[in-house]
User: What shape does this take?
Amino acid sequence: MPVVTLTVNDELVSGQSGQSLLSLLKELGIEMPTLCHLEGLSDRGGCRLCMVELQGSKRLFAACVTPVQEGMVVYTHTERLNNYRRMILELLFAERNHVCAVCVQNGHCELQTQAAKNGMDSVRYDYLVPDLPMDASHERYVLDHNRCILCTRCVRVCDEIEGAHVWDLMGRGVNSRVIAGLNQPWGDSDSCTKCGKCVQVCPTGALTLRGSTVAEMEKQHDFLKWILTGREKKQWDYS
Ligand code: FES
Assistant: This one.
């Protein structure tokens, strides 16, 4: 792949043409906040936490869906970006009912971690306090809409890795919801294979194992790499 040269935080660096800016920044050891990105899944630029400034543009760009380009001048942690990141996190907390103290993922939650890392110690916006249901119809797992940040990792892992496409999004804006099947109880979905991949990739306590109690739920992402490497090496091709 052709090499491109660009400037990141005033340092001259090189990357591969076609590579995403986020993957280059990770290679360079620059820690970028992310919530919707997960290694092994396609990127959608949804959470906007990985935003960067590009010289010559007033717009901000999500690094996960921006390819590196020759001559780019990138800034990753300006005051403007830090303020926006904090604002995004506050809006996420204000939109649903993220009550960490009684959440099964308290202490292992990526939203909570990002809030702490980005200095979000309070929320300046009015909480919407929506009246949201839980779906406990599945024999193994639970969906709690109160904790969902609509990152769509569950949608993507079920579609791209498991191939079942149980999950999707319905509605718009603050009324968007993750739905199973044709907006039916998860337990009634015929396409769910009960694999639990969606639960393991969920960054918050929105998808959890049935029976987990406060702070018990800790997610494992490693299976994604294991599956993708195995498929690449055709480890399970017995034909
Ligand atoms: Fe890039 Fe969410 S990680 S927008």
Q: What stands out?
A: The chain has six helices and ten strands. The mean pLDDT is 97. The helical segments are 21-27, 79-95, 110-117, 153-162, 197-201, 222-232. Residues 119 and 146 are 23 Å apart (CA to CA).
